[in-house]
Write a structure and sequence with these properties.
9 helices, six-stranded mixed beta sheet, 244 residues, alpha/beta
């Protein structure tokens, strides 16, 4: 995939499996967000194809695609004074729920992210971390019974430790329902905690892919990020530290 003469992605082959969490890792500019854009159908590849249930994702009706696939993006340009509960309710729109069902689903998602006290607040008045929790709750509200794929682009970037852990639990719960999850993260230890499978990207190419225990090793991560990475422990998941 090339834009303005620059190759953003090349020779990428990726399958997202039902019930698994795939985490994309790599330095800034490696192509992680671009790859999510292709997987979601928001961008089109120059060659090759992206398919959902053997059907080209670009040929799936947008309303139907929103039932099958939910996505959290880094940019959430919402500058209107919606109430928090109204923002979360936007995620219910593709599910074609009635008013009572929508209200129940919104209440559940607010509770999952401890947002009940903010339900009547103006979204634009919230802190960055609070807004991120609201937007993630909106996206998870979209993951109804027909949802097959959940894509998340740096969903914990502004969250404190408590809510990072809470979100990881929610992501795992969605995957356990049989949804294929693909998530971009920068924190190696959060990635090791969450992932079933890891894809390493470097300059638009796949640097490595496979299970956490195989792919997340100190030599490869050091080479990928051009920084010294050491593995502290493997019990029960690997823990890494880095030094300049």
């Amino acid at each position: 995939m090339t834009r303005s003469g620059k190759t953003l992605l090349e020779d990428i082959s990726l399958e997202l499996k039902a019930g698994e969490v795939t985490v994309l890792l790599g330095p800034n500019g490696a192509g992680k967000s671009t790859l999510l854009g292709l997987l979601s159908g928001l961008q089109s590849p120059d060659s090759g194809s992206v398919r959902l249930n053997q059907q080209l994702i670009s040929e799936i009706d947008p309303q139907q695609r929103a039932r099958f696939l939910a996505m959290y993006t880094q940019q959430q340009p919402l500058n209107f004074p919606f109430l928090v509960e109204e923002v979360v309710a936007l995620g219910c729109y593709p599910l074609m729920l009635d008013a009572a069902q929508t209200a129940a689903r919104v209440a559940s998602c607010l509770a999952q992210f401890e947002l009940e006290a903010l339900a009547q607040r103006d979204y634009t008045s919230l802190s960055g971390g609070e807004q991120q929790r609201v937007q993630v709750a909106r996206v998870l509200a979209q993951t109804g019974a027909d949802c097959q794929v959940l894509l998340l682009d740096e969903p914990v970037s502004e969250m404190d430790l408590k809510y990072q852990q809470l979100l990881l639990q929610r992501i795992r719960a969605v995957a356990d329902r049989g949804v294929a999850v693909c998530c971009v993260l920068h924190d190696l230890n959060l990635a090791a905690q969450l992932a079933d499978r890891v894809v390493l990207l470097q300059q638009g190419r796949m640097f490595g892919a496979g299970p956490v225990a195989t792919v997340m090793n100190a030599p490869d991560l050091s080479q990928l990020y051009a920084v010294s990475v050491s593995q502290v422990t493997t019990d029960p998941r690997p823990v890494f530290v880095s030094t300049p």
